[in-house]
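thread: overnight batch results

M.L. [08:02]
morning all. the overnight job finished for the chain we discussed friday. pasting input first so we're all looking at the same thing
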Amino acid sequence: MLTFYNPYIIGAISTMGGFLFGTDISSISAFIGVDAYKDYFGHPDDIVQGGITAAMPGGAFIGANVAGYVSNRFGRKPSIIMATIFWVIGCALCSAAQSVGMLVVGRLIKGICVGWCSSQVPVYLAEQSPKEIRGRLVGCQQLATTIGILVMFYVSYGCSFIKSETSWRLAWGLQIIPGFLLAVGMIFCPESTRWLAAHDRWDEAENIVQRIYNQPIDSPQVQAEIKEMHEAIRLEREAADVTYMDMFRARLITRTIAGMSAQLWSQLVGVNVMMYYIVDIFTMAGLTGNTNLVSSSIQYVINFVMTIPAILFVDRWGRRITLLAGSAFMAVCLFTVAGLLAGYGHYVDELGGNADVRWVVTGPPSKGVIAACYLFVAAFAVSWGPVSWIYISEIFPLPVRANAAGLATATNWIMNFALAFFVPVAFRNIQWKTYIIFGVFCIASFVQVFFTYHETKGRSLEEISALFESGVSPFAKAPPAHALARVTGKKVESVSDHDSTASHHVHDEKMA
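M.L. [08:03]
and the structure it wrote out:
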């Protein structure tokens, strides 16, 4: 059977899982202000609309928690294929929705697939990718999400000119197509080499490594990769039967906190305020009708365009500095929006029939609000957007990688779920102060990244695992790669190379 071994082709197919998530984001944001949608579902108020929006991340929370077990039991590839079943069923229910309840159930089922894929596609890609391009390939998950947002927004915008319920039914029904393409494409991708090795299917694993690198089996690069896999699996089997509770004990807790917080901050920095409710934000800035929708679409174009340099250069820039710069710039943008709204805006009972919009700003300050929103999206797209997914795919050891990625991703989705309810209520009650809250979260994310996140660029998954166990401070120059690769359960004394004259003492901690 035809099988693709080129890592870029594997990435293009598997990251279709991110595309699915993107289509869901803009399929809601494009219709919340459309009469055909509002009339059919009884003009949902802020609580009901929050529930409709939150149904997807609620399902994603379930999917992220289930995915790890299924992925470990049956394999990364079958797991991703299984997830698409939920997507197709959910899309069909949404397209055929007869009530708010049916729409919520459909979005919940779709969400199971989104959470499933968002936790396992980065794991699959990280385990398949040569370390030199791992960040680039895993980051393509976020690039695919931005493409999905952009494509679906314009599909929905076009459908919005249909002056009946057919507008949203057609748009949501078309979402079935990328789910089908993901399922078919994954059939022609190889299974994860790490998963095969962990299940003692070494012949298959070594054959796939050779084909991915496109080098003879006895080449130094292929042999080094295979040797690292052997050593990592030997070490991890000494710490077998790891439970979820073990992830919060001595050996793994640093990584668990890093992974969960990366996903937590990716939501709390405020991006979904911009993604789900951009139409409401631009209504506050005085835009209405098609002008609002077209202006809203510009942020999706920015999101896509600015994700590209992140994908191309994240393996050169590094993870830490990218996250730090993103947090700082986003905080400035959010405080700017809050300042302009507070200083030049005023309270209204409602605007354009939308009771959730109770603050409006006009004139030049409104243009400043729009510009700051665009700059915020650009900063997120080049930093937290892709890097939060890259980081969680790298930092966990093999036996817990699928479960830990699921746990971290579940943190993302439960926060996404909560924010879907919070934002419309916040816009109604505290207006511009909403942006101050998210600006403070950006500052908090900067502080945590600065003090606790290790740099992982350019290292194999096995070296990263050893780095976290080494006790080296995130501020210190990390031990050289060959030193980390030698962590085998014994003390490694005073190892240095041409990049460092300092001595490093690396210890392997036993599972607490």
